[in-house]
Amino acid sequence: MIYKFNNIELDSEKFCLTVGSKEVSVEPQVFNLIIYLVENRNKIVSRHEILENVWEGRIVSDTSINNHIKSARKALGDDGTKQHIIKTVHSRGYQFISETKADIHMEQGFYTQGSIATIKSNRNKFYFFLFALSLFVVLALTSFLGSDSPANNSNVPISRLIITDQQVIAVLPFSNTKPNVNTDYLGFALANQIIGDLAYLDKFAIRPAGSIRKYVGEIIDPLQIGKELKVNYILNGNYLKENMVVRLNVELIKIPNNELIWRESIEVDYSNTFALQDLVASKVATGLNASFTSKGVNRRYRDVPNSALAYEYYLRGISYPFSNYGHKMAVEMLEKSIELDASYAPSYAHLGNHKRLLEQHGRIKTAGSHNIEWYYEKALDLNPELLEALNNLSAFYTETNRIEEAVIVTRKMLKINPNSATSHFSLGYIYRYAGMLEEAIREMELALVISPDNTRFRSIVATYLSAGKYKEALAKTYLDEGDYGIGHQGIIAFKQEQYRLALEHFEQVLEIDPKGIWGLIAKVYISVIKGDKKAGLKALEQMVDSNVEDAENTYYFSGFYALLGEKDKSIKMLNKAVNNGYFNYPSILSNSALNQFQNDSTFRSILNKAKTRHDAFRSRFL
Question: Which of 424, 457, 490 is the last residue in one of the domains?
Fold first, then answer.
């Protein structure tokens, strides 16, 4: 998107800022801040929103934010006195106020159709270098680590696998020797690709990308991070792209004694990229069969993009945070990727997930003729063993009353990779819907052992809350420092009758996103505490009218109606939730908001229906 205001042109895709006819150099994080303010110019954005969306939830000082605002104003020819472009709204946040025109690029991606033809060869070489490089690293790792690995755990039941007996590797984001907005994202993208290659090692557990994202752009201390992630080995390094050469320095360090196991400096000219790929692929084919499952070796040849530009859009798409803003940007990037390459399975898997989450949490219906399930099925048509697609399909089945199918999909995932944190968490998610709360907690905690601090596992908070374990639930809210985590802190305080504290948390949520799902939930609780039934019902009806197809959310709506004194609507919603696949019998039975209906015959009938399905599920699957 190109934004034009005053004599300034801001290109969000080329990461370019032009004032008059002169291109202005801007630090990457300052540029991201400007983009975020422009894209949200119709509202005041709070400092919490800036932290969540620009810094991706990382903790930074107020001084740092102030300095970035100051730098953004300077780049745009503004200052704190004039404030004719970026306005400070005291006690509330900032707003971009300059009249702006937004233009969409006429051609696909960052280039015109003609320029794509001229650069495609070189770009293809560069991006296929990423694939070759990841294979090269994998080959080196297995040659150094393979002889010391523990025995294969293939005979251990998948739900009982002891991950801690294995050697654990973390691949950290690579640092850009010369930071540049056009190549900075490759640091995470390259690490993500290597993680994907290593994920199928029989004898090692690999920390997934969600665990290492928070280290993007940070000064890395391998020993400290190794201890934080509880790993045996750290793989890290730096890269430099200059002219037609890419240079990578990579090293493998053993934790905790800081022993350098392996170091390699790789310099590749574009003209030799394909030769390197062929060489490494040949060595992988002949040398890694003993270390990788056959499924894993075969899979590396399935997901290779046909378009370098499409792959770039894909990498940009998966680099965004899991927030409403991040989902919107990811959808835009992934749709462009698919337009250029309709055969790359991971793009469909990620696109469907971002659309689903945007609809659920942002209450924003995305454009397009396909439903969410279509994207997952399309991805699996292209690659039947793509874990990302299987995981997303499992969640979709769980939320749409196909929970038995979800179990089958998740068990398939665990057969493909028993050490997949995502697969264990998915199984826990299913168990929560079915009311197997101890089993759900066990699987989710196991996922966090495999992948500590993974923000995608934040809903373990809801699992502990469902089991009435408030202390444990509160302890896990650190996994999401945005509206989800703060909102749950408010709910926990409410359930413990700490109403003043609850109000503080819910007011924080409203500062972040008053119109999103958590903003509406906050309004309901605030209205209950203050006795404003009318305001609570208004917020609740907005949630109910959003047509979100999720049985667990419907169950929550039932509880909200009960808190607001709407018995008939509460029981109706509860019946709908159970009929649509949420039969968490222990949670329904112990729900304090629903206790007032214990003597109602309709409520008792619904409760018995939930118990029947809960018992049947337990008998079949446990």
Answer: 457
DSSP 8-state symbol, 55: S
Q: Is 541 domain-assigned?
A: yes
Tokens of 367: 């454009």
Cα–Cα distances (Å) from 163 to 152, 443, 491, in that order, read 11, 12, 33
pTM over 0.70: no
Could you give the number of structural domains in the chain?
Answer: 5
Residue 110: pLDDT above 60?
A: no
Q: Concatenated DSSP letters for 408-468?
A: HHHHHHHHH-TT-HHHHHHHHHHHHHHT-HHHHHHHHHHHHHHSTT-GGGTTHHHHHHHTT
Dump pLDDT digits (tens) for 267-311.
Answer: 765 444 333 333 333 332 333 233 555 555 555 555 677 776 787
The C-alpha atoms of residue 24 and residue 102 are separated, in whole angstroms, by 19
Counting other chains too, the contacts that 284-289 makes at CB distance below 8 Å and 24 or more residues apart are 284/135, 284/138, 284/139, 287/139, 287/142, 287/143, 288/138, 288/139, 288/142
Domain span at residue 544 reads: 466-621
Question: Do residues 560 and 552 lie in contact, with contact meaning Cβ atoms separated by under 8 Å?
Answer: no
Residue 93 and residue 45 in contact, taking contact as beta carbons nearer than 8 Å: yes
Tell me, yes or no, whether 89 lies in a domain: yes
